[in-house]
Amino acid sequence: MERPAQRVFLCFEEYELNSEVAYIILAAIVALELSIHVFSIIVIVPIFERRLPFNVTPVDPVESAQRLSIPTTDGLTLRGALHMPSEDPLGIVIFCPEFQGTHWMAMDYCQGLLESGFAILAFDFRGQGESDAMQGYEPLHWCTEYEISDVQSVVRFARAHSALSELSIGLMGISRGANAALAVAAEDGGVECVVADSAFTTDTLMVLYAARWVRYSTPRWFYLPEWHLHISCRLARFVSEKRRKVRHPVLERSLSELCRRSVLLVVGERDTYVPPENSKRIQAWIGGNSAVWSVPGAKHNSARQTDLQEYDKRTVDLFLNMVPLHRIPEPIAVAEPEARLLHTD
Predict the structure, then answer these.
(1) 3-state DSSP call for residue 176?
(2) Residue 241 contacts residue 143 (beta carbons within 8 Å)
(3) Least confident piece of the model among 73-87, 89-103, 263-277
(4) Domain coordinates of the chain in residue numbers?
């Protein structure tokens, strides 16, 4: 017959054994978790830093445009051009080109705006087109602090320009340029409207690609929750930032600042680089006066080529939101009040 002291001793031994087992299981989980993250970083960083084979068609210069040299706060010079309408401008739209694109591409997207009376100021990001390159910095298709700084420099230049200083300012960006435009508008309350064509947020797009890779590269029973992919992707982005000495903005944190501005997100239904889902998430983060136009049949950055008339109508209607109603010329077809996201007077 067991004595009480013996029973207590046996229970204590069982408790110690269970604790040891629990610690071993916990250590195994932690080791597995760290191994997955380390493996993810090894796989993701080279993919994240790979230059994608974008096929950007060169565009000839527009002889009627005024060539510009725009200084940055860190001593570089950005090259650009100012396209002025035939009458007094209704406002100014700053065009932010895609990765590997140039400011001469502006008329591929903004011709309708120019013909409707908006001045178009287009520029080349640093290390792109005719602008100065920054020593030690190799631009990629991911938006960094440097692209944001370039857009801020162009906005300051426009506000100081004698022919533009009194005009309302809107931003129009393509792909990476759209990301920079959204980031600057979120910080600068003086930017009244934004058209973001094929925009994306770095963290969300990384997670979407990582989930796709996991789905196609692992057994069906293998599952990683989205929060786990977020951690791995953020760690990979952090490692890449340290390697390349850059900082990628986390747009998701600031997009809500745009809730009182007019924002149009354009996305191609057949875009294989930026899934339409990404634009819908951006709209959810912005809320307020944002809208998504998903263009049937359009691929990445090709919405205007796919539906030119509707593209021009929607972009003109969007930027008319920053024009006082009494200044809008009668020949311009103004959208019905409920179709205009927001108007100022």
Answers:
(1) helix
(2) no
(3) 263-277
(4) 4-50+205-241, 66-201+250-327
Query: Among candidates 85, 342, 318, which has minimal Cα distance to 196?
Result: 318
Query: What's the topology of domain 66-201+250-327?
Result: Rossmann fold (3.40.50)
Q: b/e per residue, 113-134, with b = 16+ CB within 10 A?
A: bbebbbbbbbbbbbbbbbbbeb
Contacts 24+ apart (CB under 8 A), 162-165: 163/84, 163/119, 164/82, 164/89, 164/92, 164/119, 164/121
Q: Taking the model in full, what pTM does it have? A: 0.85
Per-residue model confidence as pLDDT tens digits over 158-196 = 999 988 989 999 999 999 999 999 999 999 999 999 999
The token pair at 311 is 């593209």
**Whole-number pLDDT of residue 6:** 53
Tens of pLDDT, residue by residue over 132-154, are 999 999 999 999 999 999 999 99
Token pair of 165 as six digits? 């200083």
Look at the alpha carbons of 191, 195, 201, 204 in this order and tell me if their dihedral is positive or negative.
positive
Q: Are 91 and 119 in contact (CB under 8 A)?
A: yes
Q: For 81-91, b where at least 16 C-beta lie within 10 A, e where not — what string? A: bbbbeeeebbb
Give the tokens for residue 5: 């002291």
DSSP helix/strand/coil, 225: coil
Band (335; pLDDT cuts 50, 70, 90):
very low
pLDDT for position 276: 86
CB within 8 Å of 87: residues ≥ 6 apart:
117, 329
Encoded tokens for 117: 């009376």
Of the pLDDT bands very low, low, confident and very high (cuts 50, 70, 90), residue 29 is: low
What is the SS3 assignment for 78? Answer: strand
